[in-house]
Amino acid sequence: MTRMLVLVVVLCCASPSAFSQERPQDISIPFPKDSGYRLVGKLGEPPGTVLTVQGIVVDGPFKGGGGGPNLRVRRINGTATQEHIQIQLTPFYEEFGPKLKYGETYEFEGYETGAFSGIPPEAYRRLELKGGAVGFQFRHSFKVYRGKRIDPIVWSPADFVDRTATISGCAQSVDGRAYVVARDWRLLTDSGAPWPADISGKLVEATGTIRKTDDAATFRRDQGTSQLVRLEDQVGRQVQLRGKVSNDGVSWWFYYRGAEIYLGEKKKMPDWPQDLHFKPVSISGILEEGTIPPASRDDPTIVTKHFIVRKAAWKRIDALKSFETEKDKD
After folding, report:
1. What confidence tens digit (pLDDT) does each residue in 52-69 have?
2. What is 41-149's CATH number?
3. Which of 71, 126, 147, 246 is least surrounded, with the fewest CB atoms within 10 Å of its CB?
4. 157-229: CATH number
């Protein structure tokens, strides 16, 4: 059976037996064809594989390389993905074809490639270099030889049949059943009860395994969860939100889909570790809207309302989904 070796930041892997050892198993690149391993990139296929990708073009991160046009991937060879995959775009020729505009949706044909870049810390020290960035890592890019602008991608249950996904739409009750509804489809989330009155008609998300039904426009969700999306609809409720936390030296903040939420003063939250800074977490607590202490404001003389999570508790998560980061700035 072929094992998949994912190329993310560094090239490394270990056999199942090696995980019990202190030192991982070394594998040279390229490794023998009969090794049982397959090297894949960010897009899930071996580098050099011709792919058609669709997504939103954004400006890449300013720090650490990878700047310029990046693609936040939404489909790979026609298959929808909600994983957060962002990859730098590089033209095969001098131009991409269409003139790129950040925030617009495009389709590109090309292949994934990459290279190591930077200066290893030990080399930096021995060379007695001053200033500049230190670090040595593998950088992925997608080499584009054909592209075009396309309409924005809007997911529907049909994109994820027999897969786990999160689908958003309007909460609507029909014949005592709860559905998530859009113009061309509906997703059954609870066959035994309607939506509560204070949720019905609002934007919700349903997460679970998506299944077909006998009606082509109706789908059902197996074993999952549902929740409100907009913060203003959740004020006064116990919430569980996914995003990133930030510590500015005075206060802890939480970033949820482009919104900034106040969590509390750092000195009053000693159990929050510093290494949580800008890491993906799940936050739970009571969501309120109110004013924050003067020391936590950009201008202490200006009083403005903020969303606030009271008695916030945190839990680390592996990664955010693409729809949870689409309003983030790199």
Report:
1. 999 999 998 866 567 799
2. 2.40.50
3. 126
4. 2.40.50.140
